[in-house]
Amino acid sequence: MAHAASFHIRLATPADIPALRVLIDLSVRSLQAQDYSPAQIEGALGTVFGVDSQLIADGTYFVLEAMNGGEKKIVGCGGWSKRKTLFGSDHGSGREDSLLDPLRDNAKIRAFFVHPEWVRHGIGSQILEACENGASEAGFRGFELGATITGERLYRARGYQAIERIDVPLANGASLPVIRMSKKRLLGGLDS
After folding, report:
1. What's the number of CA atoms in the CB half-sphere (13 Å) around residue 137?
2. What is the DSSP letter of 11?
3. pTM of the entire predicted model
4. 3-class secondary structure, 157
5. What is the pLDDT of residues 76-128, one digit of tens each?
């Protein structure tokens, strides 16, 4: 679908949470269906894939709005974290909310979702750039993330390297393959 829209990126607010829940559900069910089974998607929605309100509270979660005519709509979201949790929503297990040390640890790139009607418009790349810039301004020299099979292509294209593959157990008995990836920022620019 062709769109003639302008984009605006901003920090997410608690008022965005209902729209983010709808966006995440739609994004996962549509865009990840080629890479994950229905059981994996159902098991991951709400725990692995979902809103992480800590990112919003920390001021490190972005939404990208498309302004098409007079209508404004959130078409993408994603963030970075100064906390140890690599992925997961408010309801995810194994959360580690303790703070990272920017001089020793990598910032966590987290919770990226794009509306299915807005893929291939550079939305993920714009949000990723805002996250890397924000984490760098906070003193982080490297980034780490848990990529879905679907998202791995974007991150590889942006210079991320796979570290390991993880199978995340889900409450329904399925498991979700996730690729742990990282990227270092060098003085004066990014290592690509």
Report:
1. 8
2. E
3. 0.91
4. helix
5. 999 999 998 888 777 766 677 889 999 999 999 999 999 999 999 999 999 99
Selection from 112, 186, 94, 118 nearest residue 152 by Cα: 112
Q: Is 118 left (phi over 0), alpha (psi -120 to 50) or beta?
A: alpha
Tokens describing residue 64: 């990208």
Contact 55, 73 (CB under 8 A): no
Q: Tell me, what amino acid is at 41?
A: I
| Identity of the amino acid at 139 | G
Of the candidates 81, 160, 78, which has an alpha carbon nearest to the alpha carbon of residue 122? Answer: 78
- The string over 63-84, giving b where at least 16 C-beta atoms fall within 10 Å of a residue's C-beta and e elsewhere, is bbbbeeeeeeebbbbbbbbbbe
Per-residue CA distances from 7 to 57, 69, 74, 126 (Å) = 23, 12, 10, 10
Comparing CA positions, the residue from 142, 162, 144 lying closest to residue 152 is 162
Query: Over the stretch 21-62, which tens digit does the pLDDT of each residue have?
Result: 999 999 999 999 999 999 999 999 988 999 999 999 999 999
What separation in angstroms does the CA of 148 have from each of 7, 53, 153, 177, 189?
25, 20, 9, 7, 26
- DSSP assignments along 71-132, one per residue: EEEEEEEEEEESBS--S--TT-SS---SBP-TTTSPEEEEEEEE-GGGTTSSHHHHHHHHHH
Facing residues of 108 across strands?
A: 81, 144
